[in-house]
Amino acid sequence: xxxxxxxxxxxxxxxxxxxxxxxxCPIVCAGLGAMLAGQPGMDVSAPGGWPxxxxxxxxxxxxxxALRAAREGGCAQHERAVRLLVVxxxxxxxxxxxxxxxxxxxxxxxxxxxGELVECVRLxxxxxxxxxxxxxxxxxxxxxxxxxTRREADVLxxxxxxxxxxxxxxxxxxxxxxxxxxxxxxxxxxxVSTRTQVVLSAMEQGLLAGxxxxxxxxxxxxxxxxSVTTLSKPSRAILA
Length: 240
Prior knowledge:
The protein has helices at about 25-35, 65-70, 75, 95-100, 115-125, 135-145, 150-160, 165-170, 175-190, 195-205, 235-240, and strands spanning about 5-10, 10, 15-20, 40-45, 55-60, 80-90, 105-110, 130. The chain is α/β, with parallel strands linked by helices. Strand 1 (about 5-10) and strand 2 form a beta hairpin. Helix 4 (about 95-100) crosses helix 6. The longest helix has 15 residues, at about 175-190.
């Protein structure tokens, strides 16, 4: 029979939260440790390697390391064990959503204060998910934008390389007038007035990562050339 948990003021004490600092930046790692040091009910450390997938803990990591851990499947298989928290400067809406969709449980920008960090760690340890205030605003702003069509995304991808309308049209195999129509739609959807602002807004929302333009297939020829076989002269033996 398990012994009852020790009590304080008549209530059972919660289990201590193990927090592992796995951020790749030593300065950020030191700052996180300083903000979490002395918090009641928390054991904070910076181990040399990642914890086992079934160990109940909160791991604070940079964007790349957290996504790599999420892709390995440990967090999906042990939803209530290892909890991943990203602390990063990257506030692009597209990349925030990608991290959450990949299995990250919490997302904070480095501008977050100590109070928000502590609250986030406690919520993750209790099984909740957490999106920081600044990250939440970024995603909310992006949700208000109408989605891009496939061809608008193609034009945006080529536009990001600084090409004019004529070269965009040649690259995608469409007319210049069509490019201008898509450009007007992009400006409308991003609520901007210049081509440069379209690209900047797309970068801020993380929409350019992974975009690859799909050129228009070349029209098939109406007549296909056929090879002409030249018959050799009959031999004299046959004519004889």
